[in-house]
Amino acid sequence: MDLTSSQHNLHNELIRKIERQAGEKEDEQIVAEIMRRRFFPTVITHKAWEGFHFAGHEIRITEATDCYGAVVWPSALVLCYFLETNSKQYNLVDKNVIEIGAGTGLVSVVASLLGALVTATDLPELLGNLQHNVLQNTKLKSKHRPCVKELSWGIDLEKNFPRASCHFDYIMAADVVYHHPFLDELLLTFDHLCKNDTVILWAMKFRLDKENQFVGRFQTLFDLEVLSNFPSLNITLYKAMRKGRMKVRPSKLSF
Q: Which of 118, 172, 200, 248 supports an S-S bond with 112, CB 3.0-4.6 Å?
């Protein structure tokens, strides 16, 4: 290798290092901004709750520590922050939105406050707390009254959400892929609910290889675009549509 080639390689390596450091700094700044949206009660109460500032409102979410679906995970904050800061490009006013695996309901609450007709769904044992959070935080604040409905992935989909009459502009999901045995049913649910013009907004936290491989399986049915990536949280925010319906070139991912 001659001197000129060596200098050229060093120059390229330096540029890559600078870009990587700039990306890490930007990631840290945005993550810090997202996390500043969360606040905690100053006085201990008999019910555990967390507070959030999104869509111009103070949101109080009641939590439980006995199951995954009753805790607000960072992926939900990432998705809420995106919805709020991109409300012009992704205008939810009067749009039909369904959240799968809604858990405590934070994403559904924010979507409702931004003007959407929201259906928040989860397992039957989570519906009580989910309904409490959604209705408490949207009453007299939202354009449309949100709906809370049972949805067990892969079960009675046509009965409860008939293709002929159910049309959703957006499907939202935050942290629905983790160590559980229902990944096949989750993919089936995405497939059933998604029409040709439906947009999926999905915040995914990467954990174990087995769960991460779901992204590859997802790509057999849908095109993916990376909207945001947060390495410090191991979270990626995706936009997805049925294959061939995406206007921009989809991301090529491999695991």
A: 118
